[in-house]
Amino acid sequence: MHCAGCMGKVERAFGAVDGVVAARANLTARSVDVSHRAGVEAPDLVAALATAGFEAQPRTAERETPSAVKPLLAPLAVAAFACMNVMLLSVSVWSGADGTTRDLFHWLSAAIGVPAIVYAGRPFFSSAFGALKRGRTNMDVPISIGVTLATGLSLYETVTHGQEAWFDGTLMLLLFLLAGRVLDAMMRDRARAGVDALLRQAATGAMVIEADGATRWVEAGALLPGMLMRVASGERLAADGEVLRGESRFDQSLLTGESEPVAAGPGTAVHAGTLNVDAPVDVRVSAVGQDTALAEIARLMEAAGQSRSSYVRIADRASRLYAPAVHTLAALTFAGWMIAGAGLYKALVIAIAVLIITCPCALGLAVPVAQVVAAGALMKRGILVKDGSALERLAAVDRALLDKTGTLTLGRPVPDEVALGALSVAEAEVALALASHSRHPLSLGLVQALSARGVRAAELDDVREEPGRGVTGLWNGTQVTLGRPQVAQGMAAALTLGSGVIRVIPFADRLRPDAEAALLGLASLNVEASILSGDSLPAVAAVARATGLTAQAAASPSDKKDAIARLQEAGRNVLMVGDGLNDGPALAAANASIAPGSASDVGRQAADLVFTGDSLLALPRAVRAARATMRVVRQNFVLAIGYNVLAVPLAMAGVVTPLIAAVAMSTSSLIVVGNSLRLAGAAR
Length: 684
Prior knowledge:
7-stranded mixed beta sheet
């Protein structure tokens, strides 16, 4: 598959198979996901694809995607070498070489050019032959016809001592076509390599602790949920899990983009691919292989190549009409010039120029290249684009609705720094030791905050947790307790050491980092933001005061959908930002949606984009990148269509030689690719 037209043909081929429910082609991974009913076998699907002119084979998860660049490098090198040498001979002819000298140079050009054209043109010839053999056409058919006719006519000129031969133009056409395809394949290989590199970050195995205390090395593929892994300092995790014993810090930059290691203790969830920075820990495995968060991110990255925006559909239809239109134009040109009395030779040369100059490579590349480059740029900033068409919808949003807990706020209770600073060293050590034995959200927040302060846990005996009352234990013979305070406003925990002073530690769910800057960024993009939350009015009111946003509280999932519908009926394009299960319907109903990486499975699946870091700056960054992408897509369409509007009449009028046609067509494709590469810096 080379372009949007190929993707459309592949999907239509599967659509014609009885029992196939859906098929989605992925140009980046050069693969197709097929949903089908029972009874449809893989050979049936391969045969259907072969009928459409595409070779295929079933793909397993472990199979490495073959490079699309390597098969094109040798033909590109041959075309470049031959083109340079033939050009040198052509310069002599253009400079006035005549008679026997000109014939000699033409024969030398033929001796170099014909074998080179046959070899370098194989990617196009084989594709065109495969399509024609099955009674179909594709983009490579007119290219192959043009190259073959130009070469044959050049040989005729050489044999008959003619004035001109176009071996140089034919080789240049192949050179630029191959250069464009290599450039396109390199970008797709790079995007695919990003997915593979991400999956390779997970360790190849782990040291597993058996029930009898013995340890043994187990490969990642053999790990099972429930196993206990011992992860040494400096080692990456091979699976998702929960820290059971030990305290350390984990570098989660791979998943979140945050370079600062995050403290983790008993009860903390850790993920495959993250690096244990400080000390050995024992981790209970909870998810392995394709169930890990790392594998899910890789799947999201692959899904970004399966876009179907309206612009892609336009390119699909244009590419589908291309071959018959080009053949008709070339035939009409040939017939017209024959009727005008130009003669067979001149009519044929002009028809060849029309065939070459109308190649729609630029049109086919206009949308997918821009989306791939933009999705890659966003991925580097921690924003995963699940569907390229989402960029088109995101570019049009002018209204944003933000959930509160877990979206505007981190959704993680954080202890008050002043209260922590007031604790003595012994109190802090006891608090950490007690909190580390509980999975309560307040305890987890307390463990993280105290560990970040460098506090070491005290030695406790007879530690017990009673639901609703907290954690108790014995410290140097004194009973210590971390539990609910008798009198406190909001979230808080009370630390008691014996009969001494009770320390109350307030907690707060803080706004995400850069929340204020993110909201200002959305406002600067003319996106009006407000809060739409299912939380109670007092909780929402506090965040609304802090952010200055209008808010709707206590909204059920249907209330959220209704709010979005009302805005859409009023002509607004709505961006929904949410994370919870209750946000799923709203995320799906909005024009575009974004979820944080910490969102529920439903939230992540329903959203168009997922940002993995804590910073809310991902919102204006994604909108800016989406608008830049659509600007570039529109520019690409203008370039591709404008080129054809200008070039085709000139070619039909006979003022364009096959050499100039080859240069013009190839240049248009390279301009579109070069224009799309500007999006590499779009996610600023």
